[in-house]
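Hello K.,

You asked for the raw outputs rather than the summary table, so here they are, unedited. I folded two proteins back to back in the same session to keep the settings identical. This is the first:
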Amino acid sequence: MRLTTAIFDMDGLLLDSERLLINEWLAAAERRQIPLAAEQLIPSIGLVGKACADLLAAAVGGHSTAQSIRDEIHLRYAQGVIQPGLRPGARQLLGRLHQQRVRCAVASSSPVAQIEHRLGQHDLLRYLGSWAGGDEVPNSKPDPDVYLLAAERLKVAPAQCLAFEDSDHGAEAALAAGMQVVLVPDLKIPPPDLRHRCLHVADSLDELGDWVIERLVG
């Protein structure tokens, strides 16, 4: 089945939010005089729910401390103190696909309200036909639910979708949905087995324009 549609992850893929979030955790830990290194936090990329909470709690010395830091960072987001920028090439790639009339969506573990707020801040929603959030599906990545919902909203078969991900769990979710995957890792190095199961692995969205257009437009 021919690829016709692009579905993007948001955090760490379109938005440079993973690096920002890790820096916020490091700064919050330092204010509490808790020794913490980025290497302890990088495995949390792509995780949600209990798995993520347990990893962060182990890194900072307990669930109550981790929750305190999480609340502090959420407040800083809400107040606009911290705002993730775009990863290189994100706007350009979405713009080219939009110009070529390629349907695009976002499938993110973040809640829908965050998707709309953060992408709206960068005026990216106009490039998207739809989006699906983690609060709309019963199971988070690496389960395929959010990718299947995004495809359903575009009224397209998963096999026609090219998914773009930065994390292991996100890539596994898209593969489980029956999609082809382009992996654009940021901080976390993907395992060799996952790289081999992806259609393409790129260093940046910046380098993907012609490659993607060739496969989705011909």
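The second followed immediately with the same parameters:
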Amino acid sequence: MTHTSSAAKTAYLLVAGRLTLPADLCTFPPPDLVIAADGGARHAAGLGLNVDAWVGDFDSAQGDELDVARKVHPTAKDETDGELATQLALAQGCTRLVFVGAFGGRFDHAAALLLGAVRLAERGVDVWLTSGDEHARPLIPGRPLALALPTGTTLSVVAVSDLQGLSLDGVRWPLTGADVPLGSGWTLSNQSRGQVRAELEQGRALLVWHTLGD
């Protein structure tokens, strides 16, 4: 387990989506706490992470073994395994959450995770999501994002509501105070020019970037 020097306490939450290795996590903060959510435990070895807690109903963890006690929940529950991991991380005082294995897998779970990340950001939690080669952060009013990305990195702003006052700098096609309707493709497939900054006056969005091979 690696400890950060910043004041924010960071948890890596290993969820059961896709993870491409080697994972490009160089822009991500290192963890103070690692929690596996059910089948997400399979990502630990490839990332060289020691898991501190393992939670879920364990319906998708067949064959996975970790040297850590399981916190078993019933299959008939109101939360996803990812939500159980989130609750535990917040209870441990974590204010920055990195969901590893966030994309791919079951669409309903991935969609709920992405929308839940926006809700967490609105509560003041710093949220990151990754599947090793695809990454995202929620973008909400009053919480501008700044990312140092290699020049030419493909990035998109995905509007999950109508957006007002979207500004985007450090990209091939910058925007200033733009209004973007829900689900618009206008803000997809931009390219970074180094330090990227995104800011929003109203609405909810996800800033998504890709580190895919050619």
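Residues 145-210 form a domain with the Jelly Rolls fold (CATH 2.60.120.320).

Happy to rerun anything if the numbers look odd on your end.

Regards,
P.
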